[in-house]
Amino acid sequence: MMGENTSGSFIKSKNRHGWLFVSLALILLGVFLFYPIVYSLYLSTTSSRGIVQKFVGFSNYARLFQDSMFILALKNTLIFFLIQVPIMLFLALILATILNDKTIKFRGFFRTAFFLPAVTSLIAYTILFKMMFSLDGFINGVLLNVHIIKSPIPWLLDPFWAKVTLIIALTWRWTGYNMIFYLSALQNISEEIYEAAKIDGADKVKQFFYITIPLLKPLILFTAIMSTIGTLQLFDEPMNLSQGGVTSATIGPGNSLLTLSVYVYNLCFKYMPNFGYAATVSYAIVLIVALLSIIQFKVMGDKK
Amino acid sequence: MKKHYSINRILVYVFLASMFIVSVFPFYWMVAGMTNTAVEVIKGKMTFGNQTLSNITTLFTTYNMVRILLNSLKITVFTVLGTLIVSSMAAYGFQTYASPAREKAYSIIILFMMVPFIALMIPLFRLIVKMHLLNTHIGLVLTSISSVFIIFFFRQSFKAFPYEIIQAARVDGAGEFRIFFSIFIPSMKSTYAAAAIYSFMSSWNAYLWPLIILQTDKQKTVTLMISSMSSAYFPEYGVIMTAIVIATLPIIIVFFGFQKYFVQGMLGSSLKQ
Hints:
The complex is a heterodimer.
Chain A: H1 8-43, E1 46-49, E2 52-55, H2 59-64, H3 68-100, H4 107-115, H5 122-132, H6 138-145, H7 159-186, H8 191-199, H9 204-232, H10 236-241, H11 260-269, H12 275-300
Helix pairs in contact in A: 1-12, 3-7, 3-9, 4-7, 7-9, 9-12, 11-12
Chain B: H1 2-33, H2 38-42, H3 52-61, H4 65-96, H5 100-111, H6 118-130, H7 137-144, H8 148-158, H9 164-171, H10 176-187, H11 189-205, H12 208-213, H13 222-230, H14 237-257, H15 259-267
Helix pairs in contact in B: 3-14, 4-7, 4-8, 4-11, 8-11, 11-15, 13-14
Keywords (chain B): Cell membrane, Membrane, Transmembrane, Transmembrane helix, Transport
Domain ABC transmembrane type-1 (chain B): 69-258
Transmembrane segments (chain B): 12-31, 75-94, 106-125, 137-158, 237-258
């Protein structure tokens, strides 16, 4: 790249400096990232009760298929993924498209307002939502007052409504964040394309589906994969939406908010610790993330 | 034709306005809640009350908020500083002193960016126990300052730096570390600002890992305290709201003060490729 006519000793010193600069990070990553990931893989083939630990091969992985709690957590997580992610990304796309229209007034103001939820901590907004959605809380109060409902909705007391609450909360927190991605990409699309489409008689809805979405495809893929990783790791929200937080017996009514990551936590720190099996579940999460990402690549990434 | 257009326009504004209310209302409610009693908060009272002082007093006396805030502050400051130094040095090393071996090391660490934290949590916890760092802030900081994402972010941004400047400084006899600290860093301020904000957010708001590693009330962070306050048998909602406001305030200030860097930091370098 540079310095073609430098001496050998200079190259050597350059190389030494290269290692010096990266060494701190490499040591820390080696100890606190690389080693745990590899060790976790080994752990997933062992079974432990307290301090006794023995090698069991793949039997932990076989156990996954018979573990009703694991299957419930997997089902819940996939429901959140399949319903929440598309709603959120679609809404973000619509908001970005509207705010990209230069004839709309107060665009900067709306952009800031929609992004604002993304600055809250996951715990803070979850607890806000838990209070707003309590049985005699704010949301039910408003809905009763405008006569949309006759009796209060048991938001956090019923398995179905608890899931709905979590989906609403997640959508509130992350839509504006995704919108910003789309908005910055839309600003790079030349207006001539839209002008030409307008002349050809395409209305705004057609423009959205035939121009905006195809052009943003790579970015939609990127946000979809980021959201997949996020959903598979859902922990803070379900834990704090349930009645007693970390100490609660079930995560949401009837474990309706039990996600895979919460299950790993429970296996380690709530029940009698079985780190081996917990590591197996965490590797199952890694595999599912990889699988879902590959599927999304195949479905959306055909044209690169 | 003209009329049809304006009805559409009105609908768009109605949509925007309702989305605005949905996005911003919880912030208003949070501030209003700070001024009300627990019962008023849970009943959804929307107007301001006069409980602010009593809520703040309870928070600072019963819950020892000063200590908790200092814990969070200390952890965040050291994590951000550590992350910036370690990650930017690494990114600089990978970028400026290109070599096949380091390139290989770089691609291996990038591969690990996709691995969810949960997959390394258990061995990391056992490692911390073995190192006698359980329930210490050092343990938390030490495990949080190695961020693959931030190394990646720095390297992407460093690609735009004109390397002739480094060459010129070498000719002038400046040492490699001096070039980095007194020429390179000052000219990359905006990149550092964006990375600092990202790192600040993730450290200040962290929950799962601090929950596992910090086990006594004395060591807890603001985030952990809010979570445990709300899972109490009789939660004091007005006090919780006050704590949430105090925990959210620093981020909002940073957001409005450095909006450009903030958004850049949150989105990372994904858009630059």
